[in-house]
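Standup notes
- DV: blocked on the single-chain target, sequence here:
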Amino acid sequence: MKRSLTIGRVGGIPIRLHWSFFLLVVLVLASPGGTTASVALADAIWLVVLFASVTLHELAHSLLARRLGLTVRDIVLLPIGGVSQIEAMDTASSVETKVAAAGPLASILIGALLLAAALALGAKIWPPSLYGGSWLTRIGWLNLLLAAFNLLPAIPMDGGRVLRSLIARGHSKLRATQISSTVAMALAAAMIGYGFRHDYFLVVIGVFVAIGAANEWSHARWEASLAGLTVGSYMHSDATTVPAGVAASEVAGWLAHFPGRAVPVVDEQGSYQGIVDGGNLAGLVPGMAVGQLADRSAPVLSPDMPLFPNAAQAFERSHRRQLAVVVNGQVVGVLYLQPVATALMQARQQTRLGWS
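- DV (later): unblocked, structure below
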């Protein structure tokens, strides 16, 4: 997610703070109760505890997603919680249901264990309180509240994702997203209306929920318009390749006449080894072979791979503008970013936000 600050990594997963998170800090510091050092310190501790709990909640999503074979890009902390950025998630599926449920279940488990520990130590755990009693009790109830909030049937929250997957059992994914997004918008409107009378923080939450629901519906329409588009339909089918032992200077001279062009590199048997463009060859030295400068870490595509999200995410992940298309180790073409970007832009223009 753009405009976010990396604050650490857990299990190799980057944890980031979205810029809007700092709005929460401002709201907390501006809340009634004074601005003495002790109040500010207490507020700071609560923010740390809250978002430590949110991070554990999101890690439950992310770790299960990785166990199910999905790629987790990062976790972004927002004023109303967190978002696990998971690639190639099949929305409205049993996989999304499992991943969505993992967060609330983790929060319930943490909350129950903390309350049990507080009770064992003789602390009072009832009535529920976030501001009085032992810290074990407060943090325990905080995690249970976090689970309850995320289970609200308002997409993109966990409960909304579970609702969508249940609706999708009898409807298309697009229709399931439309229904669950409509439910979320209704709940957001209720939060905003109630918040203006009783608690302005609920207004902030309602606005974020409304934006998230609108984005989910727009994204679903966009994805539906791209269904059926594959790499094979957009790739450059010229399977020109260069042997890995060829002098890099020769290839650089050839590519200089074709700005933006890339060429796959193959071994003596014709098997794909990597891909090079002008940028890869910028640091060549005399006598260096092109195979030494080939980008061997670049994702490899197949003709039947969906253009979205798979190919689009491969470009984003690799920061390349060209990727090789390979079948059984043999190069069959090159996919360039420009036609993919054009297809995505056209689909976005055709998919104007609406609720019909």
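- Follow-up: Residues 4-151 form one domain.
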